[in-house]
């Protein structure tokens, strides 16, 4: 008879997918969500990277530097959380790393120029985050479900962070706004909110 340890070892190595290759299934769901978000904003919005023409690369580097690094850490953490018995504590701690320079730049802005948050496109920014974050979240949930997650709250939280970061990555080229206060209020806070939703609903959505 198969022991529990043997079962966990097999799930750790191969995931819980019953068909296909787990890595391809995992990556396929994440890539599909990314392509869906990118296609959506490309079809509905115009003047991509207009902020680069106006202000140079700095604002775009700050936005994408944050969101892409968060996506990378989320993908690594989701892969680890999908394998029972693996120690994912270090990767989960690394998820806070992209927020560190944001906090530092926000403190610098507040202490020198004051809060920069009055950009006129903020409703469009929030709408884009509200529409695309659940798409990225759903892709991450389906990706993790193709494996064998056991820490469901944590996996849900990371899936939420991934969804928010993916939405920010897709919309950022069309955002002409400046300021770390704007970025914190209209990007970072929605991402954290999506992570909280993932934490709450992770056990329900990821149970297998």
Automatic annotation (TrEMBL):
Pfam families: NrsF. The keyword Transmembrane helix applies. The chain crosses the membrane at residues 24-44, 64-82, 89-106, 126-144, 156-174, 180-202. The keyword Cell cycle does not apply. Keywords: Membrane, Transmembrane, Transmembrane helix. It comes from the Bacteria. This is DUF1109 domain-containing protein. It comes from Aurantiacibacter gilvus.
């Amino acid at each position: 008879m198969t022991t529990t340890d043997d079962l966990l070892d097999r799930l750790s190595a191969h995931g819980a997918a019953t068909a296909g290759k787990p890595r391809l299934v995992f990556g396929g769901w994440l890539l599909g969500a990314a392509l869906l978000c990118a296609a959506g904003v490309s079809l509905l919005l115009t003047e991509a990277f207009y902020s680069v023409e106006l202000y140079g690369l700095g604002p775009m580097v700050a936005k994408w530097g944050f969101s892409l690094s968060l996506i990378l850490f989320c993908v690594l953490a989701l892969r680890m959380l999908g394998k029972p018995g693996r120690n994912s504590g270090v990767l989960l701690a690394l998820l806070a790393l992209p927020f560190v320079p944001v906090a530092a730049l926000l403190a610098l802005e507040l202490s020198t120029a004051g809060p920069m948050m009055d950009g006129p496109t903020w409703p469009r920014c929030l709408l884009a985050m509200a529409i695309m974050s659940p798409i990225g979240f759903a892709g991450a949930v389906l990706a993790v479900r193709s494996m064998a997650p056991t820490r469901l709250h944590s996996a849900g939280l990371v899936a939420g962070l991934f969804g928010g970061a993916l939405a920010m990555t897709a919309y950022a080229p069309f955002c002409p706004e400046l300021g770390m206060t704007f970025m914190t209020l209209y990007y970072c806070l929605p991402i954290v909110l999506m992570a909280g939703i993932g934490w709450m609903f992770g056990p329900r959505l990821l149970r297998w």
